[in-house]
Each structure stands twice: as structure tokens, then as C-alpha cells.
Amino acid sequence: MEAGLSKWDEFWKGMDAVVAQRMDQIADIVMSEFPDAVPIFKYNMPGFKRNGNLIHFNAYRHHIGIYPVPIDDETLGAQLKPFLSGRGTMKILHSMDLPEDLIRAVLRYNAARLDQKRIEK
């Protein structure tokens, strides 16, 4: 865990303060939903694991990307449609407010999927 957190610190250095705040906000959302989630740094981006890859997110010039997001769930898929960019990618422009409720729904969906996989093993 320590290695992952030190890479998080390096990742945040030099990032625009407003964007870093948005990234912190996403991390806070994850921890409020799943306090047992473990911070990781994988695929050159921060993320969290909990029975597997719960979420990864990254800041880009004009947006924040969140991975993975469910596209096979009808209800969530419809809510995610305005944010989808590629298969399983949520794209939130910096000009938009963070859709906190939708991020929470994605986290819950991912957690339930991972929990189910664990049970099936």
C-alpha cells in the first residue's frame, strides 16, 4: 500500500490545483463508499482495488477518465451515455460538475460484480 501511495503523491505533483481537487474528490467518493478499498497505482494511474480492480481514474488536458464503467447494465448504461467515450470509459469534462451519484452507482456496480466473481470461485 505504501508504494501505491507514494506513486499517488508523485502523480499529483505538478497537476493543476483544480484538477487535483477533482481527482481528490473522486478518491474521497471511493473511500466513503468502500472504506476497505486499497489505493493502488496501476496502468500509470491511481485507482482502488477491493476483491479486484474497483476503479481507476486519470486526469487529462480537458477531462477526467474513469475506468471501468458498466455498459451492459441498462439503467446505468443509459445514465452513462452522455459520459461514454470508448468501451468502458467515462469521460468527465473539466467544465462539468462531477456526477457524484453516478460515480457512486458505478462503484457499487463494480463492487457487486467483483463480489459475485469472488463467490463463484
Commentary on this structure:
This protein has 121 residues and is of the alpha+beta class. The chain is 46% helix and 21% strand. It has four helices and five strands. The chain has helices spanning 2-12, 17-33, 74-80, 100-120, and strands at residues 38-42, 45-49, 53-59, 63-67, 90-93. The protein has a five-stranded antiparallel beta sheet. Helix 2 (17-33) crosses helix 4 (100-120). The longest helix has 21 residues, at 100-120. The radius of gyration is 14 Å and the shape is globular. It starts with a helix and ends with a helix. The relative contact order is 0.15.
Strand order of the largest sheet: 1-2-3-4-5
The outline comes out as globular
| Main beta sheet strand tally, sense and closure | 5 strands, antiparallel
Order of helices and strands: HHEEEEHEH
* Uncertain runs: none
Bin the strand percentage: 15-25%
Care to count the β-strands? 5
Count of helix runs: 4
Termini separation comes to: 25 Å
Mean pLDDT: 88
Radius of gyration: 14 Å
- Estimate the helix proportion, in percent: 40-55%
Please identify the structural class as seen in this structure: alpha+beta
